[in-house]
């Protein structure tokens, strides 16, 4: 799309757009005017008929309200190469569209009568963010109210129209079967780039009826899917996944988190669409998720994770794992600037209205009517029973290795010694090759975890008087300014999801500190029981013996450090951490 330019007095309004390599007369170009509707409404595109298939594409664009009960079809397509533009005419003015949309309009227009369509690239002023926000919020209604959704798969490159006709006329239930050429054509159609677009998930999911267009050929959705289902080689194709999604469109499978995670491989040019593209389809969103393309990527991430934490009907143990998925889709750790993180820390410090549940546990803090903290269920892996040598010492000083092995024998229960020794040996292999970048997962900071101290979870009183803390190294601990090895007390050997019995902690860690794991997160939190509880920093655990053995026997490492993976947390091992957004974000990176 183009933005208007102020013309200088007495100068011709001709301007060269390098992208098109041609001279364009700006006075004869179409620009959107403000969308004017008294109630909810849209623009509709009337494509004029043409007997000559190669003739100029001319259209009319008009505003209309839903109250007028407009009759139209909605186009679902991929924008494709936006550099190779083609010219059409809208309300008598020139307008540039992508090549794929140009081909769609050319093949969809009728010979003898107009065709009324809703096409996002033309019917929404893409340069007006306010309008775009409003129209995208209305897209679920736009597609749902269309008489049918037209899927445009593009030109049938390598497939003749006659082949398509024979394929879709074939009586699959009779004696005919799909031969090799039929299967090859179906595979080609199922691998069309169209199926990987984010927005089609909503467009198909909300359609009343669907018709598929391939060049001049068209077929209804049910017949297309029946052919795909009859092709064994298309069993796991994207169209069949959509079919299964449509079959369950009113179930919990259409919750926002499920949609985002299920379709994380879908493609879009605008990162925000990895979230916004599912809002209209998600059964749990309704009007509770803000759509605003003016927001930064970090703000969109925050909206997503706050939406998740506010859902009291959903399990929260995977909150940060979901946050990591959204972060990756939006662009990775760099979507948050230093100012974003500092602003969130300040917001947390100024939280004044704290909300408690019936057990006097903090649910969340409120700042100006908005939740300021995330309640994250975590598993207590154990308490630090011994602090050993630093990362560099264990690598470079043989005497320190001998002392460490002796410490394992003295501090680990006898029934757990075999696995602890195995985990230690394999962890030393990791430390021999660990990159400095990975060691940044171990960090120090002092932030509060708000909790009512008179209602301490059982697991926070873990063998308070029976750990046998060795405080002889406390002076040495205050001198070292690098990650130190530690041993855990209170660990359990249950299954491959159990935690290891050792790891690396920040210099500020002390014997008696708790180590907490969060689902799907490599970093563990070091928590100290003081007046309330405070996060002292982040630590990493070795892989448990099951994963360590698998890594040893595999050609590639499973991970650098142990990642918490568990479906449930036993109440004795559970603590609900109330984290500020900045701390939660830092844990993901």
Number of domains: 4
In DSSP terms (H or I, runs of 4 or more residues), the helix count works out at 20
**Overall pLDDT confidence:** 81
Residue ranges: pLDDT <50 for 5 or more in a row?
1-22, 450-478
Q: Major sheet: order of its strands?
A: 7-6-4-3-8-5-9-10-11
> Cα-atom Rg, whole angstroms?
30 Å
Count of strand segments: 22
Termini separation comes to 37 Å
Shape, per Cα inertia axes: elongated
Structural class: alpha+beta
Offer a concise description of the structure:
Strand 10 (210-214) and strand 11 (217-220) form a beta hairpin.
Features:
22% strand, 589 residues, alpha+beta, six-stranded antiparallel beta barrel
Chart the SSEs and their pairings.
Blueprint: E1 14-17, E2 22-25, E3 41-47, E4 58-65, E5 73-76, E6 85-90, E7 93-98, H1 99-108, E8 115-118, H2 120-123, H3 129-145, E9 149-152, H4 161-169, H5 180-190, H6 200-205, E10 210-214, E11 217-220, H7 221-229, H8 238-247, H9 256-262, H10 273-276, H11 297-309, H12 319-330, H13 338-349, E12 353-356, E13 362-367, E14 370-371, E15 373-390, H14 391-396, H15 398-411, H16 417-433, H17 436-439, E16 443-449, H18 474-479, E17 484-489, E18 502-505, E19 514-517, E20 524-530, E21 532-541, H19 545-553, E22 574-580, H20 581-587
Parallel strand pairs: 4-6, 5-8, 5-9, 9-10
Antiparallel strand pairs: 1-2, 3-4, 3-8, 6-7, 10-11, 12-13, 13-14, 15-17, 15-19, 15-22, 16-21, 17-18, 18-21, 19-20, 20-21
């Amino acid at each position: 799309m183009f933005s208007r330019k102020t013309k200088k007095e007495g100068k011709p309004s001709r301007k060269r757009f390098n992208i098109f390599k041609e001279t364009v007369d700006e006075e004869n170009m179409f620009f959107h005017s403000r969308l004017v509707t008294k109630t909810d409404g849209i623009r509709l595109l009337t494509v004029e008929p043409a007997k000559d298939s190669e003739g100029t594409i001319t259209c009319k664009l008009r505003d209309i309200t839903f109250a007028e009960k407009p009759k139209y079809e909605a186009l679902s397509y991929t924008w494709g190469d936006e550099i190779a533009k083609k010219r059409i005419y809208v309300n008598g003015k020139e307008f540039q569209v992508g090549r794929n949309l140009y081909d769609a309009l050319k093949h969809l227009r009728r010979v003898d009568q107009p065709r009324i369509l809703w096409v996002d690239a033309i019917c929404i002023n893409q340069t007006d963010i306010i309008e775009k926000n409003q129209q995208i919020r209305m897209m679920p209604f736009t597609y749902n109210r269309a008489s049918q959704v037209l899927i445009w798969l593009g030109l049938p490159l390598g497939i003749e129209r006659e082949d398509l006709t024979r394929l879709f006329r074939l009586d699959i239930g009779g004696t005919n079967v799909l031969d090799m050429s039929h299967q090859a054509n179906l595979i080609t159609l199922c691998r069309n780039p169209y199926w990987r677009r984010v927005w089609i998930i909503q467009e198909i999911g909300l359609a009343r009826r669907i018709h598929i267009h391939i060049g001049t050929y068209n077929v209804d959705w049910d017949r297309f899917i029946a052919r795909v289902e009859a092709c064994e080689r298309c069993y796991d194709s994207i169209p069949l996944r959509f079919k299964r999604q449509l079959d369950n469109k009113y179930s919990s499978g259409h919750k926002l988190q499920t949609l985002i995670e299920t379709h994380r491989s879908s493609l879009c040019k605008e990162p925000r669409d990895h979230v916004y593209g599912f809002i209209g389809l998600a059964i749990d969103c309704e009007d509770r998720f803000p759509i605003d393309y003016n927001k930064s990527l970090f703000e969109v991430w925050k909206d997503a994770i706050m939406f998740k934490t506010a859902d009291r009907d959903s399990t929260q143990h995977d909150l940060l794992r979901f946050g990591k998925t959204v972060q990756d889709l939006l662009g990775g750790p760099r979507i948050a600037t230093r100012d974003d993180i500092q602003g969130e820390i300040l917001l947390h410090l100024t939280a004044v209205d704290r909300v408690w549940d019936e057990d006097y546990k903090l649910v969340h803090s409120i700042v100006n009517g908005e939740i300021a903290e995330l309640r994250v269920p975590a598993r207590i892996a154990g308490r630090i029973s011994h602090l050993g040598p630093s990362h560099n010492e264990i690598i470079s000083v043989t005497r320190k290795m001998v002392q460490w092995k002796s410490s394992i024998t003295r501090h680990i229960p006898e029934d757990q010694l075999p696995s602890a020794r195995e985990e230690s040996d394999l962890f030393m292999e990791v430390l021999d090759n660990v990159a400095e970048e990975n060691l940044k997962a171990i960090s120090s900071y002092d932030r509060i975890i708000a909790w009512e101290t008179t209602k301490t979870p059982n697991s926070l009183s873990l063998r308070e008087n029976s750990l046998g803390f060795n405080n002889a190294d406390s002076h040495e601990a205050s001198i070292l300014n690098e990650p130190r090895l530690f041993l855990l007390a209170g660990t359990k050997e249950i299954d491959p999801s159990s935690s290891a019995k050792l790891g690396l902690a920040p210099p500020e860690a002390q014997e008696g500190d708790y180590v907490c794991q969060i689902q799907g997160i490599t970093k563990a939190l070091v928590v100290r029981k003081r007046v309330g509880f405070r996060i002292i920093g982040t630590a990493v655990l070795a892989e448990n013996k099951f994963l360590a053995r698998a890594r040893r026997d595999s050609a590639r490492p499973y991970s650098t450090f142990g990642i918490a993976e568990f479906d449930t947390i036993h109440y004795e091992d559970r603590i609900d951490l109330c984290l500020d957004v900045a701390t939660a974000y830092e844990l993901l990176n």
